[in-house]
Amino acid sequence: MTPSTRQGRYARRRRRRLGLVDNDLTDAQWQAVQAAWGGCAYCGATGRPLQRDCVLPISRGGRYTVGNVVPACASCNASKCNAEVTTWLRRKKLDEKAFLLRLAEIRVALV
């Protein structure tokens, strides 16, 4: 059982949300997504462990699918949290247009 702390409540809500949707990202698809991006999708960092990040966050109705998951370094993933990706990219002064074009290209190639 998860403790009744803020973190515990968040973990329970997240598990409940994940259980309600179809998360169909396979390990092979995740490997293909990582290979297509070649590093962190947001900052381009390489040589670091990459985490699965939902472009549309789970808390906003997203799910773990090929079209919604990008590789992110721990720093970018933690910073983005559950923010909308375009707002977060602007706030961090990252190239929003380049990210969205690359995301569209990779989605077409993988989906």
UniProtKB/TrEMBL annotation:
Record's keyword terms, sorted: Endonuclease, Hydrolase, Nuclease
InterPro entries to which the protein is assigned, alphabetical: HNH_5 (IPR029471), HNH_nuc (IPR003615)
Gene3D superfamilies, per the entry: 1.10.30.50
Keyword Nuclease: yes
Pfam families: HNH_5
Keyword Lipid biosynthesis on entry: no
Domain HNH nuclease: 28-78
GO molecular function annotation: endonuclease activity
Protein name: HNH endonuclease
Organism taxonomic ancestry: Bacteria, Bacillati, Actinomycetota, Actinomycetes, Micrococcales
